[in-house]
Write a structure and sequence with these properties.
The chain is mostly helical and 399 residues long. It has helices at residues 14-47, 51-75, 81-101, 105-123, 126-132, 139-168, 173-194, 212-215, 221-239, 242-248, 254-302, 307-334, 338-370, 374-392. The model is unreliable at 1-10 (pLDDT under 50).
Length: 399
C-alpha cells in the first residue's frame, strides 16, 4: 500500500478544523457504511436479493473494516496518522464511485469492501487528529463532534434516498451513490489541503500483533474491549435492518421508514456531545452503563412497530449510537500515550470489527429462518446486556 506524505504543520485550527474532520467521519462511516442500511431495501428489490445475500454484502463491508483496522494497527507504528487517514479517503471514495456504477451484486460487494477498508483507515486516526486542533481542555469536544459528523451524514443519505426512491423507484438507488461520491470528493480535496497534524515520525513502540501489546498497557483494557465488542455486534443488527424491519414486519411505507432512519441520524449529530457532557459529570464508566441500559429499553420499544413510539425511540437510538463510540474513544485517548493511541485504539477496534463482521450475516440468516426481524432485535438487546456488564467492570474514577 502506498501512503501519502503528510504535512508538518496544521493549516486549519480550532472548530473549523474539527468541523472538517467531522465531515470526514461522515464520509467514512455514514456514506461508506451506514447509508447502505437505508438504501438496502431498494438494492434488494432491484437486484432481487434475499435477506441472507443482503446481510452478506454488509458483512463484506465490515469484514473489510476489520482488515482496515489490522492495517492501521500495523502501519501506525511506522507511518503518521494523517498519512493513514488520507489513504483511507482514497479507498472510501473508490467504494462510493464503484457503488454508483455497479451493474450487479458483485460490484456492490467490491464497493462495500473498498468503503469498509477506507472507513477504518479514516475513522481510527480521525478523533486524535481532530482533538489536536483544539486546546487541551477542549479536546473532548472535538471527539464528541465526530459523532455529529456521522449523524449529519446519515440524515443527508437518508433524505436523499427517500427523495430518489420516491421520484425514480427502487432501480434508481445508484443515483444516491452518485451524489454521495461528489460530496465525498469535495470533502477529500478540502481535507488534503486544509488539515494537518503535528506528529513526530512514529517509532515502533512494541505494539505487538494488531496493537494488542499497546492495548494491554491501558488501564481497564479488558472490560473496555468487551464493551466495544458488544456494541459492534448489537448496533449493526439495528442499523443494518431497521428500515427493512419497519417495511417488512410492520408494513411501513418507504417514506415512513426513511423518516425513522433520518431521526436516528439527526439524533446522532447530538449524541457525541451529549454523552461527552454526561461523562464529564459522572465519568465514562457510568456514561457507558447508562447507554447500554438505554439501548435495551429502546430496542424493545421498537419491536411492535407502533409509529408514535418508534419515532422517539429512533431518536434515542441515534443518541446512543453516537454516544457509545464517543465515550469509548474518549476513554482510550485519556488512558494512553500518544505513541500507544494508534495501536491501542486499532486493537480495540479490531475486536469491535470482528463483532461487526458476523453481526449482519447472523441477522440476515435469522430473518430468513424466522420470517421476521423480531429475533434479530431481541439478540441486539441481549448483547446490550453483555455490554452493560462490561461497562460496570471498568475502573471507577480515582481507582
Amino acid at each position: 500500500m502506498t501512503l501519502m506524505p503528510t504535512a508538518t504543520r496544521r493549516r486549519a485550527m480550532g472548530l473549523p478544523a474539527v468541523f472538517l474532520m467531522a465531515a470526514t467521519a461522515g464520509v467514512a462511516q455514514s456514506f461508506g457504511r451506514f447509508a447502505f442500511g437505508v438504501v438496502l431495501p431498494a438494492v434488494r428489490s432491484d437486484l432481487d436479493l434475499s435477506n441472507t445475500i443482503a446481510g452478506s454484502l454488509t458483512t463484506v463491508n465490515v469484514g473489510a473494516y476489520l482488515l482496515g483496522t489490522l492495517a492501521v494497527a500495523s502501519f501506525a507504528s511506522s507511518y503518521k496518522l494523517l498519512a493513514i487517514m488520507r489513504t483511507g479517503f482514497l479507498f472510501a471514495l473508490t467504494g462510493l464511485v464503484t457503488a454508483a456504477l455497479a451493474p450487479g451484486v458483485w460490484f456492490v460487494g467490491i464497493a462495500m469492501f473498498c468503503s469498509g477498508f477506507g472507513g477504518a483507515l479514516i475513522w481510527i486516526p480521525a478523533p486524535v487528529i481532530a482533538a489536536a486542533a483544539m486546546p487541551p481542555e477542549k479536546r473532548s469536544i472535538a471527539i464528541g463532534l465526530m459523532g455529529s459528523g456521522m449523524g449529519f451524514g446519515v440524515v443527508f443519505a437518508s433524505q436523499l434516498t427517500s427523495y430518489v426512491r420516491s421520484s425514480g423507484g427502487d432501480e434508481s438507488w445508484r443515483t444516491v451513490y452518485v451524489v454521495l461520491s461528489v460530496v465525498a470528493a469535495c470533502v477529500l480535496v478540502a481535507t488534503f489541503f486544509l488539515i494537518g497534524h503535528d506528529q513526530e515520525q512514529p517509532r515502533n513502540t512494541g505494539g505487538g500483533f494488531g496493537g494488542f501489546s499497546s492495548l494491554t498497557r491501558m488501564r481497564g483494557w479488558l472490560p473496555l474491549t468487551s464493551a466495544y465488542t458488544s456494541f459492534g455486534f448489537m448496533y449493526l443488527l439495528i442499523l443494518a435492518f431497521l428500515s427493512t424491519k419497519l417495511e417488512d414486519d410492520n408494513g411501513w411505507t418507504s417514506s415512513r421508514a426513511s423518516l425513522a432512519f433520518t431521526l436516528v441520524g439527526i439524533a446522532m449529530m447530538f449524541g457525541g456531545p451529549v454523552f461527552i457532557t454526561i461523562a464529564s459529570r459522572i465519568g465514562s464508566r457510568l456514561g457507558l452503563t447508562l447507554a447500554f441500559s438505554g439501548w435495551i429499553a429502546v430496542v424493545l420499544l421498537i419491536l411492535p412497530g407502533w409509529f408514535a413510539v418508534t419515532l422517539p425511540a429512533a431518536v434515542v437510538i441515534g443518541l446512543l449510537f453516537a454516544g457509545v463510540p464517543s465515550l469509548i474513544t474518549l476513554y482510550v485517548v485519556e488512558n494512553t500515550t500518544v505513541e500507544d493511541y494508534g495501536p491501542s485504539f486499532a486493537a480495540a477496534t479490531l475486536a469491535f470489527g470482528v463483532a461487526q463482521m458476523i453481526s449482519p450475516q447472523i441477522g440476515g440468516v435469522l430473518a430468513d429462518l424466522t420470517g421476521s426481524f423480531t429475533t434479530v432485535f431481541l439478540l441486539s438487546a441481549a448483547l446490550a446486556a453483555t455490554g452493560l456488564v462490561a461497562a460496570l467492570r471498568l475502573p471507577k474514577q480515582g481507582d
